[in-house]
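Support reply, case 0932

Customer input (verbatim):
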Amino acid sequence: MILDHLAISATSLAEGVAAVEACLGVAMAGGGEHPLMATHNRLLGLGDLYLEVIAANPDAPPPGRPRWFDLDRFSGPPRLTNWICRCDDIAAELALSPPGTGRPIALQRGDFRWQMAVPDDGRLPFDDAFPALIQWHGALHPAPLLPESGIRLARLEIAHPQAEALRAALADRLDDPRVHLLPGPEKALRATFDTPRGARTFA
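Our regenerated output:
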């Protein structure tokens, strides 16, 4: 598995974008809609990965199922809620992952095609601290197509009361020195970015 992107959830897309732009000091780029999930997003390139602000789309019909990233139960200010890892064989990775990691759903937007493992209740294992799994199809990936932001992920911290069990559930499938699994009183994600203005943190 390879760290693919980070998701910042928000009650409205505009609020989430404003929070990220105020923190990192750059404008977010493209994005679009996910009709199957009734969500929409905006993106920011981070070199080898990207940052996504995602929210329920008030103009879309209800999806008839729980939205991904547990967005139906999201409230409060924009915050980093999920991390997403890509793989070459999503079925094989799901077989090694905890129950409730999700079932692969085929998605497409423009020329991008991918499969995403989406839990039936929208909530990933370990209180949504386990990574969402994605498999891109074809050569296209959003990260290299986004404008250069000058921002890079320096450190991603995933805190959870069962940090050791979470580490065991990943079974050494992810080797990224930027990712740190830490014990904590509750699930929490915190990302530190290197920016032209110095280090900035979003949690």
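We compared this against your earlier run and they match. Two observations from our side: The first helix runs from residue 13 to 24. The helical segments are 13-24, 90-96, 125-128, 142-145, 163-170. Please reopen the case if you see a mismatch on your end.
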